């Protein structure tokens, strides 16, 4: 298990999805009736965030939650993931959020796992690092999915390391690389400097504005 999302984060998820409870349950006056919900794999999957799904049901007020898998496990179609028991208001308060979390995070985990297995057909000990291009406010769940798949995170945030992208170099104009490299090393002597380049000659040494693989983002130094 890579790590657990904190209760405060899970509470926010619950209240974002149903801030005032399930209106249908309230209107039908069935909130106190006992019930049971079961989540199971709809297809073969690398399951992820099942611990958080378990916790969501408990935070919502369920009395019993039985979990049958852990993040990173490979499940076949139809495999049980968890069963939650409790009053109807608690089940309906949590199940949609838990279901979406278990659907979305494994989607990322399965694709990351597929890339890792493909890479290891060429070299058995290779590591795969996934870049940080998640939707806003989904970083923790997506990071857990990547780690659960057996991959690593390229980096966790912008403050962690010093990668120099084409967008940075475009704003440096004709400043020689040795000068801005020396400036970076003097400013952050304990951190490793990494330069992203399509080719060393074109990207690292070119004084002209450059485009990255994302063609919608082109930077240049203003005159």
- The total count of helices amounts to 8
The CATH class of the largest domain is: Alpha Beta
Q: Which architecture of the largest domain does the CATH hierarchy give at level 2?
A: Alpha-Beta Complex
Specify the helix fraction band. 40-55%
Q: What do we call the CATH homologous superfamily of the largest domain? A: Quinolinate phosphoribosyl transferase, N-terminal domain
The stretches of 5 or more residues where confidence is low (pLDDT under 50) are: 206-220
Query: What would you call the structural class?
Result: alpha/beta
What overall form do the CA principal axes indicate?
A: elongated
Number of strands: 9
Task: Please state the average pLDDT score.
Answer: 83
**Would you tell me which CATH topology of the largest domain applies?**
Aldehyde Oxidoreductase, domain 3
Q: What is the CA-atom radius of gyration, in angstroms?
A: 23 Å
Biggest sheet details: 3 strands, antiparallel
Number of domains: 2
CA-CA gap between termini? 51 Å
Write the element-wise H/E pattern from the N-terminal end onward: HHEEHEEEHEHEEHHEH
In what range is the share of β-strand residues?
A: 5-15%
Main sheet: strand order: 1-5-3
């Amino acid at each position: 298990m890579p790590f657990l999302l904190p209760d405060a984060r899970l509470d926010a998820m619950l209240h974002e999805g149903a801030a005032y409870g399930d209106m249908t349950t309230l209107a039908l006056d069935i909130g106190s009736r006992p019930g049971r919900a079961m989540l199971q794999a709809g297809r073969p999957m690398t399951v992820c965030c099942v611990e958080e799904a378990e916790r969501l049901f408990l935070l919502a007020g369920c009395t019993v939650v039985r979990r049958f898998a852990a993040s990173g496990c490979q499940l076949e179609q139809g495999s049980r993931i968890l069963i939650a028991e409790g009053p109807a208001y608690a089940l309906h308060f949590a199940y949609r959020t838990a279901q979406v979390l278990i659907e979305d995070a494994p989607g990322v985990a399965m694709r990351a796992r597929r890339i890792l297995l493909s890479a290891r057909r060429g070299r058995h000990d290779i590591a795969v690092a996934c870049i940080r291009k998640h939707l806003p406010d989904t970083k923790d769940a997506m990071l857990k999915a990547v780690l659960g798949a057996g991959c690593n995170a390229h980096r966790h945030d912008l403050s962690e390391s010093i990668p120099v992208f084409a967008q940075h170099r475009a704003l440096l104009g004709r400043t020689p690389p040795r000068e801005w490299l020396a400036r970076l090393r003097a400013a952050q002597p304990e951190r490793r400097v990494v330069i992203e380049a399509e080719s060393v000659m074109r990207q690292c040494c070119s004084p002209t504005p450059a485009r990255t693989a994302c063609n919608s983002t082109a930077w240049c130094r203003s005159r």
